[in-house]
Specification:
Helices cover 38% and strands 19% of the residues. By secondary structure, it is α+β, with helices and mostly antiparallel strands. The strands form four sheets. Strands 9-8-7-10-11 form a five-stranded mixed β-sheet. Strands 1-5-6 form a three-stranded antiparallel β-sheet. A hairpin with a 5-residue loop joins strand 5 and strand 6. It is elongated. Bound molecules: zinc ion. Zinc ion binds at residues 290, 292-293, 295, 309, 311-312, 314.
């Protein structure tokens, strides 16, 4: 169908409407597939051309698929032609009467509208099931903490301060290990002779590892963002110009740590569960403000992990201090002025970590 349309396009003729039915004689295997699967391909192809003529810059002309890349088809349910047997873990699709054994992620209610079956380039099959349901709201948990501030870090994935405490979340070890393995597989693949059997094996191993890391990272980001949204009514993050950072030396670690995805997840989950998501202005100096007295430390360098406030003498862990300042935004106190210092000190029962004084910190450095 694409070929036929492209021929007309190249000759500057009117692009014909082509239906899959025409090809059934020439390609009998098309009869093995259910008619919705074919129909959806036709619709997708028509949409691709329509999009292209609407906006040539954004939508390029459709291309032929490569066999090796991800493949998929979509089929619709009519009169329960698609069913899921939760007990036996079977998915019934049109023309597959005996059902397909599946590994089910969760039970669901509602009417099945369509299913997209896809095969990833590491050779695994997935079925994504679209369901119509009356009540799409997820269960909402009562938040324990009024607000939290989240500092995105490089050494740690995030540092969080809520009503009760400050804590750091590390990059998961399995991800770091997985990335090391990915590098090794990448090297091994590039050394193999192109087109050889060993090269194909190495490609598959590499694709599998890629898929593993993507899935593992998404799982980590989903669980962490859900836990934070469950716990807090207001969630405050920095407005990191991720794209700006990506151009710099930090690029690799920023991309790997998945910040932008994490923020995206927090944002939509906040909407789902009725929480407030605040992204502070890019110029809000969350790292440079002393959370205790409000002094702004303009000398703070990017690699200063701890610093001592010249105004009040408090020693700060850079990330914890930043997350506390973001937390203050969440509870409606973006500027902590020295006048409020006493009030801030009243907060110590909440468990914001007490820091050693400047002198103590200084003497220990001298020893080291
Ligand atoms: Zn201070």
């Amino acid at each position: 169908m694409l070929d036929k349309k492209m021929q007309a396009y190249k000759k500057k003729e009117r692009i014909p409407r082509v239906t899959p039915a025409k090809y059934k004689k020439e390609f009998p295997f098309l009869k093995e597939v259910d008619s919705f699967a074919l129909c959806n391909v036709q619709l997708q192809l028509e949409k691709a051309f329509k999009d292209h003529f609407r906006n040539r810059k954004q939508f390029k002309l459709p291309k032929f698929k490569k066999k090796r890349e991800k493949q998929s088809y979509t089929t619709n349910s009519v009169r329960d032609s698609i069913r899921v047997d939760f007990e036996k873990s079977l998915l019934y699709l049109p023309k597959i009467r005996e059902g397909v054994k599946i590994e089910l992620h969760r039970r669901f209610d509602g009417k099945i509208k369509s299913v997209t079956v896809s095969r990833t380039n590491d050779g695994k099959y997935y079925a994504s099931i679209l369901v119509e349901t009356q009540n799409p709201r997820n269960k909402v948990v009562e938040p324990k903490s009024k607000a939290c501030g989240i500092d995105l870090g490089l050494e740690h994935f995030v540092t969080v301060t809520n009503d009760f405490r400050s804590y750091k979340v590390e990059h998961p070890k399995y991800l770091l290990k997985g990335e090391e393995r990915l590098k090794r597989l990448q090297k091994s693949f590039s050394k193999k002779q192109k087109g050889s059997k060993n090269s194909e094996k190495a490609r598959l191993r590499l694709a599998r590892q890629h898929a593993y890391i993507t899935n593992a990272r998404n799982d980590f980001l989903h669980k962490l963002s859900k836990a934070i949204i469950d716990e807090n009514q207001v969630v405050v993050v920095e407005d990191i110009n991720v794209k700006g950072l990506l151009k710099t030396r930090l690029a690799k670690s920023v991309a790997d740590s998945g910040w932008s995805k994490f923020l995206k997840y927090l944002k939509y989950k906040a909407e789902w569960y009725g929480r407030t998501f605040i992204q502070v202005d890019r110029f809000f100096p969350s790292s440079k403000l002393c959370h205790r007295c409000g002094h702004k430390n303009n000398d703070l360098a990017l690699n200063d992990r701890t610093w001592c406030c010249p105004a009040c003498g408090e020693t700060h862990d850079r990330d914890v201090n930043a997350s506390i300042n973001l937390y203050y935004v969440g509870i409606g106190r973006p500027e902590v002025t020295p006048v409020e210092q006493a009030l801030v000190d009243d907060r110590s029962p909440y468990g914001l970590p007490k820091k050693p004084s400047c002198e103590e910190a200084g003497s220990s450095t001298a020893k080291g």
